[in-house]
Amino acid sequence: MANGKKIQLYDTTLRDGCQSEDVSLTVDDKLTIAARLDEFGFDYIEGGWPGSNERDAAFFTEVRKLKLRHAKIAAFGSTRRANLKASQDRNLELILRAGAPVATVVGKTWDLHVREALRISHEHNFEVIHDTIAYLKKHVDEVIFDAEHFFDGMAANQDFALKCLSAAADAGADLICLCDTNGGRLPFEIEEMVRLARAAVSCPLGIHCHNDSDVAVANTIAAVRAGAVQIQGTVNGFGERCGNTNLISAIANLQLKMGCQCVPQAKLKSLRELSTLVYELANITPIARQPYVGRSAFAHKGGLHVSAIQRNARTYEHIDPALVGNDRRVLLSELAGQSNIVYKAREFGLDIDPKDDKVSALLAELKRLEGEGYAFDGADASFELVMLRALGLEREHFRLVSFRVFDDKWDEDQVPFSEAIVVIDGPDGRRSRNSAIGNGPVNALDSALRKALVPYYPNLAAMQLSDYKVRVLDNGAGTAARVRVLIESTDGKRRWGTVGVSNNVIEASWQALVDSVEYKLHRDHVKPRAQPKGRRAAAGSEGRARTAV
User: Which sign, positive or negative, has the C-alpha torsion 273, 277, 283, 284?
Assistant: First the structure.
């Protein structure tokens, strides 16, 4: 039905998205997002409400310097006040001062609001809408009318709601966007009401949905089926209350499933990158299970599934993840089968025969470790090392002799600190003792271990811990419970995860830390640097840490 249909993309992340209680973007953040949206192929970028705050005012000034190639900047506001002419309204004046080529104004289309909030007659409301749009049309390139609460208005008083649209269309609105402002309508209602609106006015229609019933994307698709040519929403669905239409999912659905033209096909491959950028700038952890772009969107855990996707990925994937810039992931757990092991081995660059007895042994070892509390879903690096050991391919880069950790706090006002002492045998057999101070025991251990190893392996200097998580496994055991530690590390080029399990949180941390170091050395294929004869280990140099763990 929508095959080949061009759909305009209107982003309101910089305004409506910022109404989310956990989202706050700086002017620079907004400019970065605007530039990325333009590059991706968005048609309209709503910059904010001029005059509502200094940040939005600054954005409209600075965005002119970006020289956007495709997207048009829209300034948002409301229809004129009921007791003023449009030319006298301060809000409309600020919209024009913003200098944006597009003005988007929101007006009432639910008679409840006109009666209870504005306290004016129906005819007066039609006049407010008409006067506002006619005035703006004299000064800007395009005017979009956001029909606020349109679908609730249609349910309450269809004749009134449609006459509001007619007032906007008669005044010269370039597009009327129908808004499910309370987010309470369902797809079949949206589709029916959009068809009625399309029959009532000749100007193009858009759709703007909120997600309070968890169907904002579905409602958007229903509106397109009924004739809407523009979709409004936010990247990742940010927005007030339960959020707005998630444009990431909406774009993928429309373009890949319905054949609509939203963006150039090549740009669709950067959909995940766009999603991640906005999460990072908003300082929000990406949702792993987010459709299309989430880390788990194409993750396979069950052995039956993995076996099937190796033969034909379509058996358990609705699209090729590469189309949206995502990757297929095979997870390892107690649910894994031999197919998971073989898949991961090939992913790690290991040629392994599925019939080899070592595969069965490795599967048994995996399930044993899972039974002890290990989880490799986010710790591929640890599992790669497990696999290397089972296949007899592991190389020993050093050997632990002992470690000790001290935590000190000498008085109530002092910030506590940790000292770690690590004794190892290096790759040349020499024993060294190194100590380091950190702002947490794990950090101190990390610093001491690195101090011992960097003389042999200088590449470790670029490595650092980027995340650290602890989970209690035996909830009823209190402080005696086993814990699982997950560490994420980076060297600036790649990230990897490792895991450790123990009744002692320091020991679990040490396991994950050592795996992280071993993985780095394994992946870099480094040979130890020879040490001068007679070299003695440092006995007490200190290293301050980056992470307080």
Answer: negative
Cα–Cα distance measured from residue 494 to residue 520, given in angstroms and rounded to the nearest whole number: 10
Residue 163, burial from CB neighbour count under 10 angstroms (0-12, 13-18, 19+): middle
Q: Which domains does the chain have, with CATH numbers?
A: 8-263 (3.20.20.70), 399-524 (3.30.160.270)
Instruction: HSE, CB side, 13 Å, CA atoms: give it for residue 35.
Output: 14
Cβ pair 71, 34 in contact under 8 A: yes
Residues of the chain by 3-state class (helix, strand, coil), percent to 5: 45, 20, 40
Among residues 499, 500, 492, 422, which one has the least CA distance to residue 463? 492
Q: How many CB atoms lie within 10 A of CB 20?
A: 21
| Interior angle at CA 69, CA 5 and CA 278, nearest 5 | 80
**Cα–Cα dist 34/44, whole Å:** 10
Question: What are the pLDDT tens digits along the chain (549 aa)?
Answer: 566 899 999 999 999 999 999 898 999 999 999 999 999 999 999 999 997 778 888 999 999 999 899 999 999 999 999 989 999 999 999 999 999 999 999 999 999 989 998 899 999 999 999 999 999 999 999 999 999 999 999 999 999 999 999 999 999 999 999 999 999 999 999 999 999 999 999 999 999 999 999 999 999 999 999 999 999 999 999 999 999 999 999 999 999 999 999 999 999 999 999 998 898 888 888 888 999 999 778 776 655 665 666 667 677 778 888 899 887 766 555 445 556 666 666 666 666 666 767 777 777 777 788 778 887 767 888 888 888 887 777 788 999 999 999 988 878 877 888 999 999 999 988 999 999 998 889 989 999 999 999 999 999 998 888 888 888 887 666 666 788 898 988 888 888 889 999 989 999 999 999 999 999 988 887 677 777 665 444 444 333 333 445
Which class for 479: exposed (0-12), middle (13-18), buried (19 or more C-beta within 10 A)? exposed
CB 103 within 8 A of CB 140: yes
Task: Give the Cα separation of 92 and 227 in Å (integer).
Answer: 30
Distance CA 377, CA 387 (A): 15
Look up residue 461 and give its DSSP letter. G
Write phi, then psi, for 465 (nearest 5 degrees).
Answer: -75, 130
Q: Is the dihedral of CA 254, 258, 263, 268 positive or negative?
A: positive
pTM: 0.70
Query: Can you read off the two tokens belonging to residue 150?
Result: 């349109």
- DSSP-derived secondary structure for 62-106: HGGGG--SS-EEEEEEEPPPTTS-GGG-HHHHHHHHTT-SEEEEE
